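User:
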Amino acid sequence: MKVFDDEMAVAVYCEKTIYEIVRSNKEALLCLAAGHTSLTLFDLLKKSDEEGRIDFSHIKIVGLDEWVGYSGTDDGSCENFLRKHLFDHIGLQESNIRLFDGKADDLDAECASVSDFIIENHGIDYLLLGVGINGHLGLNEPGVQADSVARIVTLDAVTQKVAVKYFEKKPDLTRGVTLGISDIKAAKVVQVVMTGERKKEIVKRIMETDETSEVPATLIKNEKNIEFLVDRCAAGIV
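Assistant: Predicted structure:
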């Protein structure tokens, strides 16, 4: 675990990592978590695009997860969050974006298609993750199998409750689609970000708990390609 002074310092570190990856591979495949944890980094990436520091014109994007029943510009959808806070502000090509469609008629086929997109683009080069207060990664909820792949999931009660903050109207959330733990482990570079006082308890739990499916984030904490990045507040350092 790497500890930084504050949320901005964590975001700067992540931006530098993405910069180096894109500099060496202009067609790199990125997977960026939707959610408040990502916003400071997203602001830095928008600035990097404006200043020409990072060229996103050939970058590929794959989705991490989505709520079943939601997609596109739907209020509260992961896609809407990503587009509103990042994608609409940088020079991505629409043809290079492959996100989950939570409204797909055949969700199993949708998950398979997202997996195929990853394979076709030689794997995920960079993956940004947040961690839920229940320890989930993407929508890999407590009880997840360590060898899980992209699939439909039943949402944990904690996730259903916390997710309300992303919606203007109370949503009907029971299921989601997500990349699996195996997909996360297979990414070349993974950065797991936890910042702020509200993440202190789950950071402590992850660091003090052996690998267990009841705390999904513990299933990846010993992988060499995965970094856990926290600020002093989340680390419990005054």
